[in-house]
Amino acid sequence: MGIRQMLADYSPFNAQEEKDRELMLRYLDQFDDLFRRENEFAHFTASSWVVNRERTKVLMVYHNIYQSWAWMGGHMDGETDFLATAIRETKEETGVEQVTSLSQELFSLEILSVDGHDKNGKQVGTHVHLNLTYLLEADEMQQTSIKPDENSAVAWMGLDEALAKCSEPYMRIIYAKLNDKLNRMQ
């Protein structure tokens, strides 16, 4: 299924998702290549909200650029399989070897602003991520490891603890939404 159909079929959870879906569809009409970061205004990314089997904890990384506890995710870099990207990024950023998608369906969507920053000695301009999020599950007993060029810690934490430890105000709102959606599933 193509991105346009996936977005058209998605049922927004709240006003934020409704507006962001509308904008994503509009951007698809206005921009040639939203699947590569070479589009310096906006590009698609995929993220994961990784929970334990009991759905009481979430796996987070301490992100070096943002100096905050965060979910895992990354750029599509020309790929069009969002779920595969979310799983790949989760494994790369946390070191977990086994992670399972709880659904092939999109769990959440959001447009996220990214402030300009230096990455590996190169300036990255302010832009937005057109982000699609998937709900994944992993065994919290698996060994984890950091990805030194991106994060400096990996930890399981309670759902509320993940909100408290996140230092980015808008991301706390997004993570609260994800927790709310998770809790409504149970």
TrEMBL record:
PROSITE patterns linked to this entry: NUDIX (PS51462)
Record-annotated Nudix hydrolase domain positions: 41-179
Q: Name one Pfam family in it.
A: NUDIX
Q: Into which family does the record put it?
A: Belongs to the Nudix hydrolase family.
Q: What is this protein called?
A: 8-oxo-dGTP pyrophosphatase MutT, NUDIX family
The organism encoding this protein is Trichococcus collinsii
